[in-house]
Structures are given as C-alpha cells and as structure tokens.
Amino acid sequence: MQPVFYSIKAPSEGLYKEKGSKFLSFAFPVSTETEIRDILERFKKDYYDARHICYAYRIGFSEQKFRANDAGEPAHTAGDPIFNQIKSFDLTNTIVIVVRYFGGTKLGKSGLIQAYKTAAEEALKNAEKIEVTEQVEFTVTFEYEKMNDIMKVLKSFSIDFVHQDFQAVCSMTVRATKNDSEVLVQQLTPHSKSIDL
Fold this sequence. Notes:
By secondary structure, the chain is of the alpha+beta class. The protein has helices at 33-46, 79-88, 108-125, 147-155, 178-188; strands at 5-8, 12-18, 21-29, 52-59, 65-69, 94-101, 129-132, 135-143, 160-165, 169-177, 194-196. The chain has a five-stranded antiparallel beta sheet with strand order 2-3-6-4-5, sandwiched between helices. Strands 9-10-8-11 form a four-stranded antiparallel beta sheet. It has a two-stranded antiparallel ribbon with strand order 1-7. α2 packs parallel to α3 (108-125).
C-alpha cells in the first residue's frame, strides 16, 4: 500500500489584524518550484506596496523540498511559523504566503511569530484538504507504427499526458501514480525503444 499524502484542493485566503498591522494570508496548491516562483513574482507585483511578503512551502512526497522565508522580518519570526502551520496541517505540495501591511506599532518577536502563525492558520483552515498520490513522470520513446500498442496500454491507466512528439520516432512524457508507473513500464517495454524515468 502506498503512503498517504495531503494537499489543498484550491487556493484559499485568511486575514489577521494586530495593532493596526494587517496580515493577508494565501494558500495555494503547487507541485513544482517553477509554479512557486511564478506565484511569488505575481505577489511582488500585486503587493508592491506591502512591507513584507513572507512565505513557506513544502513540495514532494518521500523526498520533500521545503523553504521558509522571513522576507526582512527578524530571523525565524515569519517563515518558520508559516512553515510550522503547513506541517501541523500535515500538508505537502502547498505554499502559504503572508503579506504584511505595517500599522505603525511594532509587535516584537513573540507578537510577530503569533501573527504569522495565526494568519497562515486562517488560510489553511479555509482550504479543503485532499489526499494526493505520489506521481512519477517518465518518457517513452517508440516507433510510429507502435502507436496503437502504446496508446492501448496508456489508456488502461489513469495518467496525465505532459508532452507528446510524433515524428518517425515518437516520444511521450506521461505522469502516473508511483504504483501504476511500475506496471506501466513493464507493459510498455515490449513496444518501446526506451523508457526514461
């Protein structure tokens, strides 16, 4: 049986106010660092007037990548509390961003930690938690005349097509659950020239 992982189904938002400061929080489902970069770039443009845009994320399954960023707040007062909320909700493939508008009164380290923790929690409480399955991406290369055999195998599984290239020698990049991918590779091997995992 494969291990169970959780993410969120769709973007969600939260809000926390403390001594005039506003902490707007946003949670997004993500699966790659490229997606994360795109979201952060958009936030920098959309919230250019904010004092801080702090975030944390965790992506991947057995081998997880994560990052916590204080974005100018005192060390460990923003990114870590946000990341700890992702962990306490037991999520992966999730980024939480908290945008702070300063209200004129300093909150101190413990006040900041509490504010970022609560803002992140608000966004995650408003999100729908879903089960996600570890996926494997691989490319199968085959002769054009083997197309029907390859497609017949692929259609018997629940897969995502990532990229296709149909020349004299064809290639297809697909994504499948880790469990399915092992069986898929076995079934595709007789019809293919190579399979790159």
